[in-house]
Design brief:
Layout (H helix, E strand, L loop, with lengths): L1 H32 L5 E4 L5 E4 L2 H25 L12 H21 L7 H24 L12 H21 L7 H23 L24 H32 L2
Antiparallel strand pairs: 1-2
Helix pairs in contact: 2-3, 2-5, 3-4, 3-5, 4-5, 4-6, 4-7, 6-7
Amino acid sequence: MKFYHFWDEIRKILFVGILYYSFYSSLWLLRQKIMLTVVNKILPKGRVMLNFNSNFILRYRFVCLLLSVGYFIYQFTGTNYENFGIQFRYLTIWGLTGAMVSSYLLYRSKLNNLPETYHAFISAIAVLNAMVVFLYWKLYFIDPSLVNYSGSIVWFQEYYLHALGPLLIIFDALFFNKSFSQIKKGALTIVGICLFYVVWTEALTAPFNATPVGSVTKGFPYPFLNNMTFSERLGFYATTTLTGLGFYFLGWLLTKIKSLLLS
């Protein structure tokens, strides 16, 4: 059984790696195919700046919107309606919902030829999804039961919610929308989202749910939270929020570096 469990973990790690590699490879190949629709600007010292064609961005966002709407609706087919907060107890679903709303806003702007907007919100949602990926896989590789109370979810949903979906909105935020240009508003937005989720969890969903049950308390959506005291949970929330701010700073830094390279 131990060998089987070890092999199962190796298989999942390899699958995630293949998923990311396939996505990046597909983007690279797609870029090669649309070079005729991309505007190349020669910069000093022979550098080249690529501006993606508006039609490509529009199609990219349409695909992102379709995927996010589809997976958002899919959540209602397998949720437990006896639980207060249903699937919205989970931070992952907050990330999915935010990505869906962001994809709609971005698609609508491009469809109507409007300037890129919603920078603070889009960047905060990108960071939220980065946090989801980081926290989920960090805890999953320690012990899957820390994050999956009722067992592993179906594979295609697991890898979309915790890999591909977040990557799609992060890519748009960094390269199309350039969302990380408003660091103060964006940082405040992600802090606000984190605080709202903490209040939602501590004051509403946990008190009104009887499962999962841990060694200390019960009702929190992620099993490991039920093994923590209130002060320990506060420490976890604080470090998680700081991690989000760290991700936001990284996004801002990457945006600055990209701007300097292309200036």
